[in-house]
Specification:
Radius of gyration: 17 Å
Strand content: over 45%
Oligomer: single chain
CATH class: Mainly Beta
Distance between the termini: 32 Å
Structural class: mainly beta
């Protein structure tokens, strides 16, 4: 997994991400209280550009610059060194505002990854779509590179580690900002996620390996649609735990 820089430099870089972000797209909830921003930026000065996002609640950032992507066996991370090829927004229902962003990996024979986002009044859901392409007709996923960097360190975040994974929903108060719960809506045949902590306040998706496989968590063919990664957001613990978007996303 990509290493992260020191805490001081990280603060500098995440602040700079808003300045040097490329191809930024924004989508807000119907009531305007929650906003999702997706863009391309560098995790480190000399690193490849990567897909990243931020989340704002009531005008304040509640999820700091967090990176997106998939670790593909024996191939570069899908989601790094990419360029945006298209995007569009929609309001499929009055319940949410939607965004669909399409990316192609530079220097490859057409490796693509798309991000679908829905922003509700009580949270956000996003998922990956991997279109069929020659290099990814058959795809082996080792793990996800999906991060959730919360703004305020809390005891529940500190208890998470590579050895002590957190199950879902993972609920945290972000003092002065609100409450947030990290959750998922599973996809058939895709492993259920837990959360590991890579550094500081950065939680990262972790997928269990397939039985008898030392490398891969998912093996299949494209096109592939992943599970929804969900952020339930509200002013109280009760409000995030009672959020309705998970029920609405279940097939």
């Amino acid at each position: 997994m990509a290493c992260r820089v020191s805490a001081f430099l990280l603060l500098f870089l995440t602040g700079a991400a808003g300045i040097h972000a490329q191809d930024e797209r924004r989508v807000a909830s119907p009531d305007g209280q929650i906003e999702f921003r997706v863009f391309l930026t560098h995790p480190e000065p000399e690193a490849f550009v990567r897909m990243a996002y931020q989340v704002y609640y009531r005008g304040k950032r509640i999820i700091n610059t967090s990176f997106l992507g998939l670790y593909i066996h024996d191939q570069p991370t899908l989601g790094q060194n990419v360029g945006m090829t298209a995007s569009h927004t929609d309001a499929t229902t009055p319940a949410y505002q939607g965004l669909f962003a399409e990316y192609m990996q530079n220097g490859t024979l057409g490796r693509r990854i798309n991000l679908e986002v829905r922003v509700y009044n009580d949270g956000i859901a996003f998922r990956y779509h991997v279109p069929k392409s020659g290099p990814l007709e058959h795809m082996n996923i080792e793990d996800e590179a999906t991060e959730f960097e919360l703004m305020v360190d809390t005891p529940e975040i500190s208890r998470v580690s590579a050895e002590s994974l957190a199950g879902l929903p993972f609920v945290s108060e972000q003092p002065g900002l609100g409450w947030i719960a990290i959750n998922e809506v599973p996809a058939a045949g895709y492993p259920r996620m837990k959360l590991s902590r890579s550094e500081g306040r950065i939680l990262i998706t972790h997928l269990p390996l397939l039985p008898g496989d030392r490398f891969n968590a998912w093996i299949g063919v494209t096109p592939m649609t992943g599970p929804w990664r969900v952020l339930q957001i509200g002013p109280t613990r009760e409000s995030v735990l009672s959020a309705k978007l998970v029920d609405s996303l279940n097939p």
